[in-house]
User: Fold Type VI secretion protein VasK from Escherichia coli.
Amino acid sequence: MNKLACLSGRFGRPGIVFIGVAALWWLITRYGAFLGAETRRDQILLLILLSLGLLFVCYLPVMKKYVQELTYRRRARKEQRLPDDEERLAQTPPRYVTVQDIRHTLRRQYGRFWGRKIRILLITGTASEVELLTPGLTEQFWQEEQGTLLLWGGEPSQPENADWLAALRRLRYRPADGIVWVTSGLSETLSAPLTEDALDRVSRAVSSCCERLGWRLPLYVWSLQESPDERGRITQPVGCLLPAECSSDKLKAQLQAMLPGLVAQGIQQICCAPRYYFLLSLAERFRRNIDAVVEPLSVLLRPYRQLLLAGIVFSPATVGGERSVRHRWRMDNRWEALPETVQQLPVRLQPSRTGHNWRRSLAVMAAILMMAQGTGMVVSFLANRSLVAEVQEQIRPAQNQQLSPAERLQALLNLQKSLARLQYREEHGAPWYLRAGMNQNADLLAVVMPLYAQNAHLLLRDAAAAHLEQQLRTFIRLPPDSPQRGKMAKAAYDQLRLYLMLAQPQHMEPAWFSRTLMREWPQRDGVSAVFWQANGPTLLAYYASGIITHPQWKLTADEELVSQSRTLLLRHLGTQNSDAMLYQKMLARVAHQFADMRLTDMTGDTDVSRLFFTDEVVPGMFTRQAWEEAVLPSIDTVINERREEMDWVLTDGRQKAPSPVSPEALRQRLTTRYFADFGNAWLNFLNSLHLRKAQMLSDVTEQLTLMADVRQSPLVALMNTLAVQGRTGQPREAVTDSLVKSARNLLSQEKQPVAVPESRLHGPLATTFGPVLALMDNQNNSADMLNLQTYLTRVTQVRLRLQQIAGSSDPQAMMQMLAQTVLQGKSVDLTDTRDYGSLTAAGLGQEWYGFGQTVFVRPMEQAWQQVLTPAAESLNARWRTAVVDGWNNAFSGRYPFKNVSSDASLPLLAKYLNTDTGRIARFLQNNLSGVLHREGSRWVPDTINTRGLTFNPAFLKAINTLSEIADVAFTTGNAGLHFELRPGTAAGVMQTTLITDNQKLIYVNQMPVWKRFTWPADTEAPGASLSWVSTQAGTRQYADLPGSWGLIRLLEMARRKAAPGVASGWSLSWQAQDGRMLNYTLRTEAGEGPLVLLKLRNFVLPETVFELSGTSAFTGNDEDAGDTVEETD
Assistant:
């Protein structure tokens, strides 16, 4: 209710409207740019439109109600529910019409500002009592006389007239100056005494009236007293004004203070006429029973009622107060008891608005704003004055030519900082303390900028131009054949570009200019290197930015110098570094526009994770989509920029650049470089593919099934992706042909498993992708041509064979049979497919090595491994049964395998070591001929058929050792070899005697000769002995070793080394017991001769052929050993 009251006041609503419009204008000026209102005209138009829109919304309910009433009235007339002419109906003017009459009457009588010249009192009470005081007021509603306007406020006991009170709110800013309650309840005879209930009703009525009016008004109690006819008596005001927060005691004191005056004036009047005793009777009543007046009024003084009881007036009824003129009344001296203006009342009893006082708030806000504006102007004046003084102090040293260059540059730097601050404030607005109508930012900037330019031209532009001219002349003066020209061409190009930027501001690039000029001009004369390196970039960058907006600062260039520099640079400019820079710039533009391609993106909806995996990705900028949508346009953009650069740096627009630096040649180089990186990116990704490891035969079968399924194969999907990506950059004619063939293949998809076009390429990626896409050419079915379809067909055959094995009654036996077939050197479909895959991978070339191994080789190797693993276990068992067990039974615990006295049987050893018919040779030929073959005297594994198997290194070493022994000592099938011995001299030795199998060699220091020996010789007493005769003793025995292996035992005891000057010879030395050496020279017919048998010492024949613990890794090249692994999380 209070809000409605304050809004309906004369100044409240305009104030709110003004504040709302101001807030709306602030929002438009701050955020109008988002709505396209950037200029002041657009902002004003937007404000008008929004205001009209809000006005329409506010009055929409009123318009709606009016339309509804009009519609209802028309419909009622059509239905003849209302008469056509309604003038016969009595029309009661609304209350606001009466208020308008009052306003017009008072304006005509008192002028436009009548509201400040009259006193308005709202009279309330019972109609009969009000008529006793102001005759005719209850009927006429208002009466005016001598600047006092009386308004009828209704009876307190009756419901309030809301329309009348609402209309009165529009009469004046303050509808009334007070409320007068006319009552006869305080008299002794006119009416019954006032009860507390009656006073409570009066209090509520007065409070409700104040709320309706929107003002808390002072209340005056007008007590009508009984009195005889006192016509002709001079009336006087009888009453008192009460203080604020008046209590019953204060009221009583006020009434008692009236007694002397009442008695004095009453005596005077009664002296004139005895019937004028009103004042004396009132004084007598106060003296006799004043509490009868105080007690009823004390109810209105209670704090919780919040009534502004301002005074009490006592008077008899008005006699003869009727006027013949309507809205007029007779005003006498009694009304002087009420104050003429509200300012005569105490502050707390003066009228005040209910709710928030918008007028006072606006006044306070206006005062605060005025004070803030005044303070802001003072602060702004001081701040602007300080700013001007600061700039003046910075200009003086910059203009002082007697200072050193470093000092002038420091002053210029300080001035530059101030200018930058002024420019920023000009663009974004000055700080609040510089505004308030005193802002000198724009004027100061306009004055200081020419002064800065004058000093910057001398200290920066001219100095830089002189340095660049010197450098360019140095470059020009170089001899024509000097190698320095080529080395300095790039630096000279940058120097020329810097020089032309000063002369042509439209080409200025501030960041590049400052960075490059500091590199070309690291040291300045008269300035310390530390100062120049620290502040030079800032000085140059700011001047470069300023010359763009001030073209009049440009330098007058030396045209002859520029022409000569251009001619030499066009001849010597190298493009390698510039190409790299432009290439990186081009890639930077498209690097983040496309997502990286992962393996799952290339294989579509197929389940590639079951077959291949990799952590690598193909960068998004190296895809066909990136080339067509971004890279190609980016190259064009770079070329255009380069062409522009060539136009303004190296050419003057009239001469054409030579072909090495022409934009067309640059386009070709950038394209070639991009497709080189394109191919490398795809090669790195594809070569990083790994095959998912299969643990069981069923896993291998599932992988092969998935690989060969033309509709769900990740390999087919990957190859189709390569077919698309490999044609990136292909000429339009070739692309059109491939699209037609693609459509043709799609129509015959049932007959052609791989839905790809012909693989012949004509684009820039033909060299890189050609080998892979050649596999997808299904039109050439020549037996010599490898293709993917044939490979997948062979994979299907292998898969069917493995499924047949897995579905048999004894899968283990069938796998062993299949493996044994291969180990015996026979060909099967699995090895054929493996060989086909190896051939296909080899045909891709070294660049595609990783991809070829993963896709075409390792799937078959993995399948082959699953077959060979159980076969290897079986073969190891057969080796132990067929060879090792018999070997150990025959030779374990005998010499030379152990250092014991019993000898191994040479005939039995020959049965094992015979090259053709020996047990070991027959086992290897019958069981391992497919994976092991003989090269000379050595057994060598087959690197193809042993894929997936690991030979026991000890096994290979053992059989090669035995093979070497067999080739020397068992050439005829049985043990037998021939060799020659020649004795040698020794100090202190007169004679040596060597006997082996009854073959003697006696030496008595004569000329030594060779003697031929045979081992073993046919004798009944085999063995070997050695004796000597020294110069100090007789014959002594060195060793006597009986048995077939006696010679080998004797050779084991000798010191052996190659004999110099003797082919196939060894020097043998035995140290006798007396320390003398017994020397002989051995010459063999084959190999090491009898010494080869010493390799049997402590020889152990391995029990396994293959190592089963390492079968999980392929035994290929070392670089491939870890390619087929489980992917770890």
Notes: Residues 1-11, 86-93, 746-759, 1110-1129 have pLDDT under 50 and may be disordered. Residues 977-1085 form a domain with the Immunoglobulin-like fold (CATH 2.60.40).
